[in-house]
Amino acid sequence: MATRTATNYTPAISFGIDIGGSGMKAAPVDLASGTLTHERLKIATPQPSTPDAMAAVVRQLVDHFDWHGNVGVTFPSVVHHGVARSAANIDKSWIGTDIDAVFTEASGRPVRVINDADAAGLAEIRYGAGRDRDGVVILFTFGTGIGSGFFLDGDLVPNTELGHLELDGHLAEKRAAASAREREQISWKEWAGRVDAYLEHIVFLFSPDLIIVGGGVSRKPEKWLPYIDVGVEIVPATLTNDAGIVGAALIA
Question: Parallel, antiparallel, or unpaired for β 71-75 and 13-19?
Fold first, then answer.
């Protein structure tokens, strides 16, 4: 566990919280380099993941770092003007809830919320594998579900939620998310076959110039990326599992 350390708020340092279906993690971020300035703290996402329960964890994360400035938060939902419009891997009571307002009240700091995969994509476009890349760049986060960040010439097209495309009669994320491999206890090769089929569909629909793969599995690309061949350049996320925190800090 990270040691509690007071953090001074300066324009060069921001603060990000990355919320997923299984964990909520946070750290201050140096915006000049896109690196964490302190060891991140991760707390399990409450179950059930209701607004009150998750707001309490947001407060805990902010207080742990003694943070007093603006806060950026990623959220596993379609986020429209700060309001949750979906809830694929969190409690359904979030739908229609003003996330910005709930977390601002709980933390006592101004909060701005963004879709989790959009945030990871912003970080990779600014600091990582998508830096200085034109054309269509799509980042996918493989975790509890499949998140997507879609960029055209470096500009974000928000809330694409491409993990909800149908594949072989199922939502793609139900079969090709990292959680599906763990839940069904299948091999990396078998899981990669599902990812390959999913990405073939993505290439057919959007003709991307670059695909970036993130989430926890991006730390182990040698176990599955060699089995992927869809005729498009595919690279692991440079910021790996910290991309969400960094992207959240960018929008804070």
Answer: parallel
CATH number for the domain that contains residue 221? 3.30.420.40
The helix (H) or strand (E) run that includes residue 24 is: strand 23-30
**Residue 2 located in a structural domain:** no
CB proximity list for 123: less than 8 A, separation 6 or greater: 34, 239, 242, 243, 244, 246, 247, 250
Q: What are the angstrom distances between the C-alpha of 237 and each of 37, 180, 227?
A: 20, 20, 17
State the pTM of this model: 0.90
CA distances from 63 to 43, 113, 212 (A): 13, 18, 33
3-class secondary-structure state, position 252: coil
Residue 4 pLDDT greater than 50, yes or no: no
The range of the structural domain enclosing residue 177 comes to: 132-236
Q: CA distances (Å), 117 to each of 5, 92, 148, in order?
A: 28, 19, 5
Tokens 């990871």 label which residue?
120
Give the position of tokens 């928000």. 158
Secondary structure of residue 156 in the 3-state scheme: strand
Contact 51, 93 (CB under 8 A): yes
Evaluate whether 164 touches 148 at the Cβ level (below 8 Å).
no
| Residues 86 and 21: beta-carbon distance below 8 Å | no
Which residues, 6 or more positions from 208, have their beta carbon under 8 angstroms from its beta carbon?
135, 136, 137, 138, 202, 232
pLDDT tens, residue by residue, 26-43 = 999 999 999 999 999 999
Q: Which SS3 state, helix, strand or coil, does residue 93 take?
A: helix
Task: Say which residue the tokens 């998310």 belong to.
Answer: 177
**171 and 202 belong to one structural domain:** yes
The per-residue pLDDT of the chain, averaged, comes to: 93
Helix (H, G, I), strand (E, B) or coil at 250: helix
